[in-house]
Amino acid sequence: MVVEAAAASNGNGAGEEVFSKKLVGYDGFQRHNPRSDRFPMHKFHHVEFWCGDATTTSCRQARPPEAPMFGYGLGLTLVAKSDQSTGNHHYASYVMQSGDLVMAFTAPYSTQTDKSGSSPPAAYDQDAAYAFLKKHGMAVRAFGILVDDAAEAYRIATAHGGVGVAPPTTRTDAASGTSLTWSEVQLYGDCVLRFVSGDYEGAFIPGYQPVEDAPQVSYGLQRLDHAVGNVPELIPQVEYMARSLGWHEFAEFTAEDVGTVDSGLNSMVMANNNEMILLPVNEPTHGTKRKSQIQTFLEQNEGPGLQHMALKTDDIVATMRQLRARSAFGGFDFMPRPSPDYYRKLPARIGSLLTAQQYKDVEELGLLVDKDDQGVLLQIFTKPLGDRPTVFFEIIQRLCALEPQAPKSQRGAVPSEVGGCGGFGKGNFSELFKSIEVYETDLGIN
Ligand SMILES: [Fe+2]
C-alpha cells in the first residue's frame, strides 16, 4: 500500500522541505531521525483523563486504606488536588504519580454549583467537559508535554496548521513566585496536546494544592513510554503532526505486518527529536472477514481518540507481580496470556537475550517478548479500563542493551533512556490482536 502525501515547510525558516508519507511496512521502513522539530520538546509531562466522577475513577473501585485512589490498581500516589476543598467549584481533579508518570483525573461539578468567587481554571470549559463525557465516556483529554516555551510552541504550531484549542495562559504561584505557562492544540478528535513550560516548583500546576499526607505507593512504574491514537485515516493525521510539530516517523506497521487475517490496521509511530515522546497512530483497514478492531474503537469511542498508553517500568516482573495480585480486588484485568506454544517457540526467536530465569518469569506472568536491533521489549496489555471497550494500558520494559555497531566491550553501555529501543512488538502484534478479537467476540460487539 502506498499513499503519497503533501509537501510541508520545515518550520525553522530554513526554506521549504518536502516530506512524503508512504506506508511501506515494517521491513521496508528505514529509520531516520531528521531532527526536524519546529520548537524544543523534551518529554511527556502528564496525561489527563476526563471522567464523570474523579474520586471514584481515581479510586478504581477498591480503596483499601493502605493504598488509596488509582494507586491500588497501578501503584500511584495521590500528590495534588484541585476541588471544592481548595476553592475550585468548577471541577474536581486528582493527580496521581509514580516516578515521572503523572496522571490527572478530572470531573466537572454540577452545572448548578455556585461558582461565584471561583475563577475558572485555565482552559477549562464545563460545557465542553460534559459534551466530551457524553460522547466518549471516561477517556484521555490531554497529553501534556514539556517544552521550552508554551506560548511560542502554540504560536508556531498554529502557524503551521495546528488547530488551536487553548491559547497560552501563564499562572504564577504566590508562595514560590514561580510560574507555569500552558497552551493546547488539537491532537486527534477531542484529545489535545498540551504544551507546558516554566519554572513552576509547586504541585502539578498553579492552583492545585499538594497532598502531603497520602501514603506513598509505587509498583515501579517510571514514565509514559508511548501513547497510541486511533483515527479513521492515518496519512492526514501523521501529516498534521509532521506539519504542525515537525515530528518524524519512527516506525510503521501495515496489516500484513500485524498478521491477523480476520481484521486489520495500519500504524505509524511519530516521534519528536529526542524520540522520548512517541505517539503511534492507527487506522482501520477494510474488506477483511471481520470489522477492524480500530473501527470498533472508533464506534465505541464515538470518534478518534487515545487507544492505549504504555507505562514503562524498569522491572516488569516485580511490577506485574504487584498488578496481577490486585486484579481480582479492584485492580486491572489483563488480556488472556499467550498459548504454551508461544513460550515454547520463544527461545528460537529471542535466543540468549533473556536468561533462563527471565524465560520462566515471562511465562509465569503471561508477558509478550519481542526484539529489534537495539534491544528487547517485554510487554503486557490490560483489558479496557472502564465501561466502554476503548482505552487500555500496556505495561512495558525496554532492555536497551543492544547496539550491533558498537564494539562488544561497549554493549550494555547504551543508556536505558533510549526512546523506543526494542521496538513496538511487531512480533507480538498477532498475539495481541487475536486476543482483542476474541475479547470483542465475547462482548458481542464485533
Ligand atoms: Fe503500545
UniProtKB/TrEMBL annotation:
Gene3D superfamilies: 2,3-Dihydroxybiphenyl 1,2-Dioxygenase, domain 1. Transmembrane segments: none annotated. Pfam families: Glyoxalase (PF00903). Pathway: Amino-acid degradation; L-phenylalanine degradation; acetoacetate and fumarate from L-phenylalanine: step 3/6. One of its GO terms (molecular function) is metal ion binding. GO terms for biological process: L-phenylalanine catabolic process; L-tyrosine catabolic process. Keywords: Iron, Metal-binding, Phenylalanine catabolism, Repeat, Tyrosine catabolism. Residues 43-198, 223-383 form the VOC domain. Binds 1 Fe cation per subunit. Its cofactor is Fe cation. Fe cation binds at H226, H308, E394. Belongs to the 4HPPD family. PANTHER family: 4-HYDROXYPHENYLPYRUVATE DIOXYGENASE (PTHR11959). This is 4-hydroxyphenylpyruvate dioxygenase. It comes from Chlorella variabilis.
